[in-house]
């Protein structure tokens, strides 16, 4: 219901400001985790939000592997830090210096790890809408992740997406079948706060673009900054 008591629906002229608020408050979290346990009903709601995402051909090609075990998390963290070094070795000068201050994960400090996977076989061979764009399955998994991220924000939790890993390593670590892709390791947890600006912006790695930089009217403009 809106403040005026009108139901919000497809035809309502009232914006759902609470949704926009959640969208604007959402942050990628690395340093702010406090590591307390998430109440089971809250975790269930967050996973339920992820599982409510749209998916190509209603294939729902995602799975969520909940990782609580500390040894498993430590092992993954070691791998991620090694991959961080691989990336760091590709940088030089100011980029290397700036990156050296950036934390890229909160695997052990978060309350729980959630690996989100993509199974291209789910619902196949006749996945409605995927015959021309194979990646549509992967897009569906990313929508589930975004639902999870926003729901967690609404619950006062933080999420950090970790992609500094080799898929084979994570497959082996979590016993994921060979045809299934681990799309993300999400650090989910209680937080002391959500930062106002992205970490990468705060550290001077990169700034957010203006909306008008990325809106093209009619045809793709080729004169904008990347
Ligand atoms: C596909 C994807 C992979 C990401 N991988 C990492 C990562 O490995 N480590 C990290 O610290 N942040 C990672 N991020 C978070 C981004 O750096 C972050 O979303 C971006 O800087 C904007 O900040 P914000 O999410 O707080 O708005 C990832 C985000 C996405 C969408």
Please characterize this protein's 3D structure:
With 226 residues, the chain is of the alpha+beta class. It has a single domain (28-192), classed as NADH Oxidase. It is built from 8 helices and 4 strands, in the order H-H-E-H-H-E-H-E-H-E-H-H. The chain has helices at 17-25, 40-51, 70-89, 93-99, 136-154, 167-174, 199-202, 211-214, and strands at 62-67, 112-118, 157-162, 181-190. It has a 4-stranded antiparallel sheet, sandwiched between helices. The protein starts with 16 loop residues before the first helix and ends in a 12-residue tail after the last helix. It binds flavin mononucleotide. Flavin mononucleotide binds next to strand 3.
Keywords, separated by commas or semicolons:
226 residues; binds flavin mononucleotide; 4 strands; globular; NADH Oxidase; alpha+beta; disordered N terminus; 37% helix; four-stranded antiparallel sheet
């Amino acid at each position: 219901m809106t403040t005026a008591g009108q139901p919000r629906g497809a035809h309502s002229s009232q914006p759902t400001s609470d949704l926009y608020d959640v969208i604007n408050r959402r942050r990628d979290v690395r340093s702010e985790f406090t590591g307390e346990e998430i109440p089971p009903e809250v975790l269930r709601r967050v996973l339920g939000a992820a599982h409510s995402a749209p998916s190509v051909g209603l294939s729902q090609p995602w799975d969520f592997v909940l990782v609580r075990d500390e040894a498993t998390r430590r092992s993954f963290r070691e791998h991620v830090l090694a991959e961080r070094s691989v990336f760091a070795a590709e940088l030089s000068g100011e980029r290397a210096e700036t990156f050296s201050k950036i934390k890229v994960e909160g695997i052990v400090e978060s309350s729980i790890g959630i690996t989100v996977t993509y199974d291209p076989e789910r619902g196949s061979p006749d996945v409605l809408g995927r015959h021309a764009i194979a990646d549509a399955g992967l897009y569906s998994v990313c929508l589930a992740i975004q639902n999870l991220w926003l729901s967690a924000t609404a619950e006062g939790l933080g999420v950090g997406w970790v992609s500094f890993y080799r898929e084979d390593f994570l497959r082996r670590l979590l016993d994921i079948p060979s045809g299934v892709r681990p799309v993300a390791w999400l650090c989910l947890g209680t937080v002391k706060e959500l930062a106002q600006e992205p970490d990468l912006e705060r550290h001077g790695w990169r700034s957010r673009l203006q909306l008008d930089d990325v809106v093209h009217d009619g045809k793709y403009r080729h004169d904008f900054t990347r």
